[in-house]
Amino acid sequence: xxxxxxxxxxxxxxxxxxxxxxxxxxxxxxxxxxxxxxxxxxxxxxxxxxxxxxxxxxxxxxxxxxxxxxxxxxxxxxxxxxxxxxxxxxxxxxxxxxxxxxxxxxxxxxxxxxxxxxxxxxxxxxxxxxxxxxxxxxxxxxxxxxxxxxxxxxxxxxxxxxxxxxxxxxxxxxxxxxxxxxxxxxxxxxxxxxxxxxxxxxxxxxxxxxxxxxxxxxxxxxxxxxxxxxxxxxxxxxxxxxxxxxxxxxxxxxxxxxxxxxxxxxxxxxxxxxxxxxxxxxxxxxxxxxxxxxxxxxxxxxxxxxxxxxxxxxxxxxxxxxxxxxxxxxxxxxxxxxxxxxxxxxxxxxxxxxxxxxxxxxxxxxxxxxxxxxxxxxxxxxxxxxxxxxxxxxxxxxxxxx
Length: 402
Prior knowledge:
Strand content: 15-25%
Largest sheet: 6 strands, mixed, barrel
Strand order of the largest sheet: 2-3-8-5-7-6
Order of helices and strands: HHEHEEHEHEHEEEHEHEHHHHH
């Protein structure tokens, strides 16, 4: 008997038992559908993270308060990073474009127009807007004269502005930051969440001099941001900054650093590592769902073999060989997984397209899930279809007809 004819026999057998066939392919549908959605979410997340990483800038170096290597955040309570460090960088480092200082505090009390909330306060240099880059979309940003006069002016993020001034523009209004009155002179452009997952729009930006002397009452910084003229100089400059900070802080290796130097390459590497680990975990979960579906399919096929012993016996009695019986049942397993894969891909694709419209989850639909789904389906069909097919092929015609 030819292979096409054997395949046709298997498909007719599946069509004759529609409910049983559906139960066999249910696990494949769920597994493949979840695989497509998971990979779309993973790619969407990776794209989103890399977009945020790219916003860090390819020419930037960030010196954080607090030790560590690779991508690290500034550590609260570390008071070793000073204005003198920034000046030393300006004096010694070659090829820099901007060196800007930032001191920040989280959860500072804000009041305006009878409304209250908590937000982050960033005390910054006047060139901070260009270094980020993060200009004011309305009004003005922090200016050199604000720094020189210790001006009580602030620029608000969009979320903070919406919270305190829901029905009007905040520019020109007053706000109390930590019970100190400030005049709002600008509104920052809206930003997506940061690579670290923080909402950067819930902040107030004030002059660095005002923040250190009038609001925070401190002389230490949270981080220093350096923008190089040429991206190719970043690795060299990062190492020079590290050596310079060792000299500034009187650190002799192997003493632990009280600062960390972060570049865009390290941020990207950390983001790719996290994204890759997450994707691998999600794909493993989808693979587990497929394996469970394969076990269910195998057990139903084994039951089917028991129920169809007379059919198998008759076919063997009229001349069908073991190979034909084996191929028929293996074909049934592959047909179940391939049809289940097609339905699962269609459902997963639809969910992936719909998801960004009804939730904040971003997805990217591509051809990779389809290729992986077909590979998984063939693997599940072959691995879990062999045992039932072997059992059917081994049935003796006389025993099967009893």
